[in-house]
């Protein structure tokens, strides 16, 4: 199996594809521009390096069976695939903000369901310099609460390099570093799959795939139930790493990068607005770079932002006015003090396949890309569109983030840098065009 399928941590630049094409190719130097041509074609096509495709190993085949096995759950009715649906790019196709789980499938999960596609390329969680040319995890910064944070700009990503930022990890708060850790989270959560190590082990011992797993795991697993359980979870990780369905890289955008596809006029406009630091500025976080590795871009920098998403009152936990989900700073018991600079921050998700999702943000508060783009453009210009208004007419902006942490909000990067009375960074047409571009990121 090639290195990609093991522990490869690829290096991707934070420079946007637009900037890369302007400055990074010989053709760009000859023509002066590698912007999409008027007919939507890519004048500077690149050759992408995708993971090799091989038949699944025996371990990965077992992992696939476990992934689809509802009997590992506390209810006996919920498998990993119940929420991470293969037919919807390993995300949920439900329009509910969070899922129902627990022993009787009547408990709300805490957050919306992220996709499992492309998860194998996430670096470990860390807090350190915002490196504009690498996604490799930096060293942990000891005094994270005392660091400073500056702006991020799609045209000048290097300006953010002095920032100390949380980055990497899986889940909305980065609390898992490996696919195995990620699998255990929902598996043992009482409000999700509601299982126990004993129940999973019992199922693995009596499942149709048990004998093969024991044979592959060796004598130690036959003598130790905990080791057999660890091998079962490892098998699920192998399934995610080996099966090309988790990382297809075959969207229209990938075809455009390689010169095989053309943007429509609206998709072309959306691509330009996505990369424009004065408009969408999306590529400052949702990196669309092709670096020297030639790996396809993931449309995330694996970092975290506090965007002030509205409180979602469809979640029962939010009926308690003193209950807050603060993301990164809740990943450890003393986080609201030790990591106070990052309270309210959640991961920047990949935008690949984003157009197939039904809910958005960590709490599932938005139900469409139109809602999301409106929020980005109008959060501070028309706050009453998104936040509740008190009986006295006061808009309760940022109502899901306690006042002491609101300095963490992004108010400096476009499109969040607009003040009341100013024009939004993105016009309605810009937003429509960006959504058209985002639809080119759907895997086929």
UniProtKB/TrEMBL annotation:
InterPro entries for the chain: Cyt_c-like_dom, Cyt_c-like_dom_sf, Cytochrome_c_Peroxidase/MauG, Di-haem_cyt_c_peroxidsae
Record's subcellular location: Cell envelope
GO MF annotations, alphabetized: peroxidase activity
Protein keywords: Heme, Iron, Metal-binding, Oxidoreductase, Peroxidase, Signal
Main location: other
SUPFAM superfamilies assigned: Cytochrome c
Cleaved signal peptide residues: 1-28
All copies of domain Cytochrome c, residue ranges: 58-204, 265-442
Source superkingdom: Bacteria
PANTHER family to which the protein is assigned, alphabetical: BLL6722 PROTEIN (PTHR30600:SF10), CYTOCHROME C PEROXIDASE-RELATED (PTHR30600)
Protein name: Cytochrome-c peroxidase
Organism for this UniProt entry: Gluconobacter kondonii
């Amino acid at each position: 199996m090639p290195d990609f399928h093991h522990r490869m941590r690829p290096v991707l630049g934070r420079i946007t594809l637009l900037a890369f094409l302007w400055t990074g190719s010989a053709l760009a130097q000859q023509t002066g521009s590698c912007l999409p041509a008027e007919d939507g074609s890519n004048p500077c096509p690149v050759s992408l390096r995708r993971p090799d495709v091989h038949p699944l190993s025996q371990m990965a085949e077992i992992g696939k069976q476990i992934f689809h096995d509802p009997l590992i759950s506390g209810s006996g009715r919920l498998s990993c695939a119940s929420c991470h649906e293969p037919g919807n790019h390993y995300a949920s196709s439900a329009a509910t903000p969070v899922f129902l789980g627990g022993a009787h499938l009547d408990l709300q999960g805490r957050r919306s369901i992220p996709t499992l596609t492309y998860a194998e390329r996430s670096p470990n969680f860390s807090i350190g310099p915002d490196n504009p040319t690498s996604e490799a995890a930096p060293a942990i910064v000891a005094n994270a609460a005392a660091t400073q944070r500056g702006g991020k700009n799609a045209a000048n990503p290097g300006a953010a390099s002095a920032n100390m930022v949380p980055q990497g990890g899986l889940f909305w708060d980065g609390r898992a570093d490996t696919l195995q850790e990620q699998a255990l989270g929902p598996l043992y959560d009482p409000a999700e799959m509601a299982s126990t190590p004993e129940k999973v082990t019992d199922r693995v011992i009596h499942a149709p795939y048990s004998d093969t797993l024991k044979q592959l795991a060796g004598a130690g697993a036959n003598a130790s139930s905990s080791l057999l359980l660890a091998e079962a979870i490892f098998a699920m990780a192998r399934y995610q790493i080996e099966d090309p369905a988790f990382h297809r890289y075959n969207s229209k955008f990938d075809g455009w990068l390689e010169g095989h596809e053309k943007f429509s006029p609206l998709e072309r406009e959306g691509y330009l607005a996505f990369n424009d630091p004065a408009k969408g500025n999306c590529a400052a976080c949702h990196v669309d770079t092709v670096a020297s590795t030639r790996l396809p871009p993931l449309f995330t920098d694996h970092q975290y932002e506090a965007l002030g998403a509205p409180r979602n009152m469809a979640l029962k936990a939010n009926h308690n006015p003193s209950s807050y989900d603060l993301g990164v700073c809740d990943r450890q018991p003393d986080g609201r003090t030790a990591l106070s600079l990052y309270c309210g921050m959640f991961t920047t998700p990949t935008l690949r396949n984003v157009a197939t999702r039904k809910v958005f943000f960590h709490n599932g508060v938005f139900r469409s890309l139109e809602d999301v783009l409106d929020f980005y453009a109008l959060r501070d210009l028309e706050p009453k569109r998104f936040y509740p208004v008190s009986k006295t007419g006061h808009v309760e902006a940022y109502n899901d983030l306690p006042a002491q942490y609101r300095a963490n909000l992004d108010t400096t990067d476009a499109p969040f840098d607009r003040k009341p009375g100013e024009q939004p960074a993105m016009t309605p047409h810009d937003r429509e065009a960006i959504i058209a571009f985002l639809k080119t990121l759907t895997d086929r």
